[in-house]
Amino acid sequence: MHRCATLITLGLICLVAGRAQAEEAKHIVDDEHRFRIEHPGAGWRLLAENEARKVVPDSVAGAVGPRGTYGVVIVERWASTDAQAFATVLINNMPLVNKRVLATSEVRFAQQDAVRFEVTGSVNEIEVLFINHVFIRDGFAFQVLAWGLPASRPRSVIKAFFKAFSALPGRVRGRARSVTSPDAKGPGWRLAAGVFESAPYRLRVDPSPAWGLVVGDELTKLDAEAEVGFVFGAADAYGVLVAEQARGVDQPAFAKHVVHLWADGVEVKPRGKPIMYSVAGHQLRMERFLVTSNGRYEFLRGAFFDGPTCYQLQFWYEESLASQVLPALQGVLATIQVLAPTAARQLAARMAGVVDPENVVGSDFCLRRGAYRNFALGLQLSKPKAGFWRFEAGDDAKTSDPGALVSFVDPTSGIRGFLAAEALPAGGAAAYHRSVLADLVGEGEEVLGKPPAKTQISGVPALTSLLFRADDDVVYTIRVTTAARGNQAFRLFGSDRAGGDSDVTSAAAWAALLAGIDFDANVPAFAVEDGQIQDQRFGYRLKVGAERGRGRDITPKSIASVASIRTWAGEGFDVVAFAICALQAGQDMKWFAGVVEEIMRDKMSAPEGTTLGIPAKLGGLDAQTLSWMSKSEQCHAWYVARDRSFYAISVVGPRNAGKAWFEFVRSSFAFFD
Question: Is 12 helix (H, G, I), strand (E, B) or coil?
Fold first, then answer.
């Protein structure tokens, strides 16, 4: 392989490991939080707050180091002085697969009594080691957290970051900060210029001077089922709005049910009289609860109906902040609108034309442009064309069921559920369906439709049953569909609160979901045919033009689940094709461009004739170009972002070669969908 291509490849591997662009700094001093971070040493780069938040949204400072290591500092208000209890909460809430707590101990860290813990687990099939130091100071909880890939032996590297941190004398004051999420979009919703809109739930939320709006990854941390979140800029107070369809229910009883259902699941105490507010032309009764398990926090919960949609609102804050937060609540509630029918239809029409941005890649699957594809099973599940279905895959899907391949929510019908696959047990398809039902049916519950309804999915016989489940006089409808193909069994589970088998909306939505399943989607995840690279996981093809060339997969195993690095050498030219998905929120095209340019500078030492950032097209999208010359070679590279995935291709050839073949490769790059 040519030297230039080798250096680009090494740089791309550094990118996957976690390079980040930031201004060089010898140290960071945070006066409000009273800490200092010295430069950890060779290979490290300090990150100011705006860059650190691209790594972890809650962090106030950080650093990125060699071998794919990170370090961040997170500070938040915390009423309790029990650091061990805080550490326990953190460990329990870490969203890791195969999580293992390696060690927990009380230590002295940065002149503070602290708790140190080490945890390993998988994120998107990548094993990660986390080491955290937790301490409480002046009503604030500090986390000095670092992590890396166990295969790269990160402990000695991480130690430098911990040694660089020190606590400064003086009282921790904290600071108010802007918390509104950047512009973002998803199936049926968007946040643009500070305004949030949701087509399926007929919502519009305008900006509030005191409260920021939260969507996307940051919202998931507050409540995975919420449609939009709120953060109070003047203090640590938070809120979420959860919406769901509940047709054919006793609305007052249902509203009371969802308010107290939460209270039944945690240790809370009702406190004081409810507070009445006005929201979207409705009276909202907010019940008050006190939670004392970790500090003293007050929660306000209420719900109201507009048509068949139930809107649930929850706000929470440290008890001592009530005098600041409560007067500000009416201001944020006044920003919430439920659109009238005509405006709601107009919004739905506009949102229907927005490209579905959901995008996740795993070792043997991808979720892209409204379709989940599993290459190991030869399976595809496409979203129904009607509505604004939302899918999750990989680790996120497994929060619904450990065996789930993909989970789904249909905001229009209210159905939420998952698709799972497993080995077909002895007894065949009918016995499998009975066993799935047996795991669901509780004492006193009734299964409808005996025997189960027979149908076909993608030419495969399937069985569907209905189950009604009552909870506080609120009836949930559960749909279960199973199918078997060869030795593989599939089960789909769906639940809604909208009127049972007589509800035509839910029944039609379920039928449309089943119609989107293809059991014969046997497309290879990667192939090279007639000199053309075809990467179905990342959804692109690239003509390399050298049928007799030699291709290699040089993707490190540690990050192969979220990245692909392929090289092709032939006829005097080298090609590198790189793609990566599942980067942190905030790592956008501007960030990626900075990383690619940094790779060039670090690895190539700014060679003669280097040009940066030249506009170009790659796959029909606006891209950037890097071009440079060495004594014997020339290289042209292009990079682009699409749906939270990043792509880069480079072509290296002789210095005296014309540009026609370079342009041929660039113009041949195309997305499948």
Answer: helix
Q: Is-contact 647 639, C-beta < 8 A?
A: yes
Report long-range pairs for 381-386 (Cβ below 8 Å, ≥24 apart). 381/406, 381/419, 381/513, 381/516, 381/517, 381/518, 382/516, 382/518, 383/187, 383/356, 383/516, 384/410, 384/509, 384/512, 384/513, 384/515, 384/516, 385/512, 386/412, 386/509, 386/512
CA distances from 27 to 40, 491, 556, 567 (A): 9, 54, 33, 39
- Cβ-based neighbours of 388, under 8 Å, separated by 6 or more: 187, 188, 189, 199, 200, 351, 410, 411, 412
Model confidence over 556-609: pLDDT tens digits?
887 888 889 888 887 788 888 989 886 555 566 666 666 666 665 555 554 555
Task: Give the separation between CA 230 and CA 180, rounded to whole angstroms.
Answer: 8
Q: What residues form DSSP beta bridges with 121?
A: 128
Per-residue tokens: 522:
């046997």
First to last CA, the chain: 32
Angle, CA 408 vertex, CA 423 and CA 453 arms, to 5°: 60
Write phi, then psi, for 13 (nearest 5 degrees): -65, -40
Q: Is the pLDDT assigned to residue 48 strictly greater than 70?
A: yes
Max Cα separation, the chain? Answer: 82
Burial class (CB in 10 A: 0-12, 13-18, 19+), 482: buried
- Residue 392, SS3 per DSSP: strand
Q: For residues 19 and 8, what is the distance between their CA atoms, to the nearest angstrom?
A: 14
Contact (Cβ atoms closer than 8 angstroms) between residue 27 and residue 39: yes
The per-residue DSSP string of 429-483 comes to HHHHHHHHHHHH--TT-EEEEEEEEEEEETTEEEEEEEEEEEETTEEEEEEEEEE
The rounded mean pLDDT for the chain is: 86
Neighbours of 619 (CB within 10 A): 21
**Cβ-proximal residues to 182 (8 Å cutoff; 6+ apart), any chain:** 191, 586
Q: 172-222 pLDDT, tens per residue?
A: 988 766 667 788 899 999 999 999 999 999 999 999 888 999 998 788 888
Q: Phi and psi of 386, rounded to 5°?
A: -85, 140
Whether the bond into 57 is cis, omega within 30 of 0: no
- Asked if residue 143 lies in contact with residue 134, where contact means CB atoms within 8 angstroms, the answer is yes
Q: What is the pTM of this model?
A: 0.87
Of 89, 154, 80, 79, whose CA–CA distance to 117 is shortest? Answer: 89
| 104-148 confidence digits (pLDDT tens) | 999 999 999 999 999 999 887 888 999 999 999 998 999 999 999
Give yes or no for a contact between 538 and 527, defined as CB atoms under 8 angstroms apart: no
Exposed, middle or buried: residue 92 (CB in 10 Å: 0-12, 13-18, 19+)? Answer: exposed
* Residue whose token pair is 């890396």: 148
Where do we find the tokens 């005097």? 572
Of the chain, the percentage scoring pLDDT greater than 90 comes to: 48
Position 431: which residue type?
Answer: A
Q: At what angle do helices 589-604 and 3-17 cross, to 10 degrees?
A: 130
